[in-house]
Amino acid sequence: MKTAIYPGSFDPITNGHISILRRGLEIFDRVIVAVAVNPEKQGLFPIPERLDMIEEVIKDIPGASVDTFDGLLVDYVINQGSNVILRGIRALSDFEYEFQMALMNRKLSRAVQSVFLMTDYKWFYVSSTIIKEAAELGGDINGLAPASVARRLKEKFEANRKAAAEKKG
Ligand code: PNS
User: Fold this and answer.
1) Which residue's CA is minimally distant from atom 1 of ligand 1?
2) Using a 6 Å CB cutoff, which residues line ligand 1?
3) Which of 21, 29, 162, 164 is deepest in the core (most CB within 10 A)?
4) Is 82 a catalytic residue?
5) Is 0.90 surpassed by the pTM of this model?
6) pLDDT tens, residue by residue, 121-168
């Protein structure tokens, strides 16, 4: 059984992420979607909500599971009995960041390998950040994220707007 860890913020999960997950499962027997706890980056969705959304969208994908971790990624990978970090890569702009992370992870542990899959062209422009921005401004993001995620984004921004209006009086 070969397990890969697919780490990220997943705030929220997008169709691009799901594509990488599915393609990862063509190479590995199990892929754990690992949501990183970053105390410095609060994000839009609290971790339990991100896990909920991921659970819902991966429930029919054999071999996929979801978890959360804090601390060093390489330690988590090893604790899970894995030696593979799976990441998707989109454009040149992703490359520098991914290269730096892969080298840092390699410096931290020679026992862990980083494996990259190039995104499908359909998801080239899709990121959690850009769909959040579009959804916040009322844009239609259907087709870019699972329907359940699109619905939760809408609800989240509506709740945030309501809370801001109530605060204002
Ligand atoms: O989806 P993201 O935000 O690009 O994911 C970044 C993530 C979570 C993979 C990265 O920040 C990470 O690995 N964090 C865990 C802490 C860690 O191990 N840092 C040192 C290696 S860069």
Assistant:
1) 8
2) 7-9, 36, 72-73, 101, 104-105
3) 21
4) no
5) yes
6) 999 999 999 999 999 999 999 999 999 999 999 999 999 999 999 988
